[in-house]
Structures are given as structure tokens and as C-alpha cells.
Amino acid sequence: MTVSKTAVDPAKAPRSGRKEPAEPAAESTILQLGELSELLGYSLKRAQLKVFEDFLRCVAPLQLTPAQFSVLLLLDRNPGRNQTEIANTLGILRPNFVAMLDGLESRDLCARMRSTNDRRSHILVLTDKGRAVLARAKKLVAAKHEARLNDLLGSANRAALLAMLARIASDF
Amino acid sequence: MTVSKTAVDPAKAPRSGRKEPAEPAAESTILQLGELSELLGYSLKRAQLKVFEDFLRCVAPLQLTPAQFSVLLLLDRNPGRNQTEIANTLGILRPNFVAMLDGLESRDLCARMRSTNDRRSHILVLTDKGRAVLARAKKLVAAKHEARLNDLLGSANRAALLAMLARIASDF
DNA sequence: CGATATTTGATATAGTGGATAACAATTATC
DNA sequence: GATAATTGTTATCCACTATATCAAATATCG
Questions:
Q1: Which 110-129 positions of B have CB less than 7 A from strand C?
Q2: I need a labelling partner for A167 at 20 to 30 A (CA). Which of A113, B44, B123, B137 fits?
Q3: Is pTM beyond 0.90 here?
Q4: B32 vs A contacts (CB less than 8 Å)
């Protein structure tokens, strides 16, 4: 291909001889996504960003990220586990989990306790405050976040979506 | 709550007096996800990671990331657009799009040309090599990546999933 | 028992993606 | 023609992810 180093911008070139009536700030013409709209990964990513964004909004009064929420949930359901176990279950690398726990512990949401069985490991426990924050977070998530998704998709569709995502997450 | 600073690890404490038969490296007991498995965002994120991972594998011979692939696709479908328009459409911030384009341009997959209408902007074009790589990438994605998702979910389910994700991405 | 290997939490570090502020060149606005 | 807005760019920062390494503690095995 031999390409001249200048080109005409079709979005801004006056089509025919007529003058354009000052364009509305955004793109003059919407771009075509083409095969992108058939790419599952593309919609998956964009949907994920939106969902996380909404999660953050809904749970903003408690200052919890999705990842922090998932840790609190897991600690509540699995008392007596150590850092490696919790981190592995959530797909967090142990080194990265240290700072995350530091954050939660400094806010008195959970605590590390040295195990009597294995003095290398830290047993993780929710504090009372951690349990209280988790309870409030669960309510916010159910009442605002998940409820909104339910409104958008309908209950049956939401369940089907969840099942397929879980399928991909585990079997793909 | 008053908490002693040591605790017993239930996963490793011998239940009853019987000796444990040397545990299989991983967690002795699988952790309970609890409400996490009902959190749409959680499965969404994990599924997204898996799908991107597979995309990278399938298109590895061409050394293309999902983001780079989406740029090439968009350039092909929307000739004559500038950096701002392409970046905005993909949800990439203009400053971050510069380095990304540098990468693609240095591999001779696309080129920037100064517009004759507006000498501030760069019209983006696919090179012949860019078109060739895109064509091969499309084939790999269709034959390996999307086909595998189709096998896992079934064609109808895959379409339903895509529709719901697109719904969330646009209307949520 | 004791030497060696493994595990745990931790640190340092690097890479990547995403976000904002600021700038020069250019164009639009009034 | 003065001022504002836009484009591509740089610099910079933050969050998240990934790897290597370490000391302490424990497990393994001769």
C-alpha cells in the first residue's frame, strides 16, 4: 500500500457543497462497532465495568470496593482460615493480599491472629465492626445494586445470566 | 467483642483424636463462597478474566490484546476517523490512547495521517499489514475463541448472554 | 535426631490500565 | 482579532497484577 500522508476527515468534510450547521460537540456520526458487538469478551468487559461502577456507588457510604466486600463475605462464611486460603479462593496473589488486609485491619473490620497450630499463619477473623459493616453492605447491595439489575433484566433472565457467567468462570 | 490474639485453625486441627492422612497440598476443605455466588459482579469479573485469557491464547500467534484487536476492528469499519473518536468509542482516554497507537504504528499495523481539514487531528488508517493481521485475527477468534464459547454454552444461550451483557453495558 | 525442603506472611519491585493536569498547535467563536 | 475550545501529547499518579526473594516456622525423610 502506498499512502499519502494526508487525508480527508469524512466526519467533518462538508458532504456536497452545502455548509454544515455547526456540529453537536460529540462525534458528528456515530461510529460502527461492527464485529465488536458480536465479540462476547467486549460486552463482557463493558458490562463488568458498569456493574462494578454501580456497586461502588451503591455501597459508597461504607467505602467498600467489590474486592473488599468479597473478602468480608468470605471471612464471615469461613471462620478460622488464613491469608493464603482466603486469597487463593478469591484469586488474589498472596503478596497483594497483604496490603489489602492492612487496609481492612486498619479500619478495624478484621484482624489477624496467630494460629496456635501453625505459628506461621494468620487466622483471619471479622471484628464486630466488620460484621456490622458487612451486614449493612449486604443490605445496600441487595436493595440497590442487585435490585437494579433485576429491574433491568428480569428475575429469570438475571438467574440465567448468572448461571452462564458461573459456567464460564469455572468450566471455560 | 473481646478477642484473644491466638486461634485454632479448623482446617488443620485434627477433628477428634484421629490422625489426619497428610493433606493434598491445596486447601484441606473447600471454602464456602456463600452470597458471593449470587453476586452478579463477582461471576461477571471472573468470567471476563477467563474470556480475555482465552482470547490472548487463541490470538497469541498474532500478538494482539483484546484492546488492540478492538482498535483494528474499529479502524477497519470506520475509515477516516481521528484518535479522539476512536478512543472515545472504545472508552479509552485520549492520553492513554497515544502509547497504544504508538505500539500499533511501530508494528506497521496502522498509521496516523494529518487531516487536511483540521491540521490538529490525526486520521487513522489501517495499513495493508494491519488489514492482513486483522483478517487472520478474526479467523482465529471465530474458529477458536468464540467457537469454544459456543461449545460451552450452546448457540442460543450464547446469543442470550450477549444480549444481556450488551443491555447492561448500554442501559445500566 | 537432624539436614533439607516446603509453607506462610511479608517486602521490594516491575508492569499494566486507568485518571488528571498541563501544554503547543490549531481551529472555532464572537 | 481577541478569546475560547479542540487535538494530540507529555508527565504524573493511583490501583491492580505479577514475580522474586526473605525469615520464620513447619514438614519431610534419611
A1: 118-120
A2: B137
A3: no
A4: 77-78
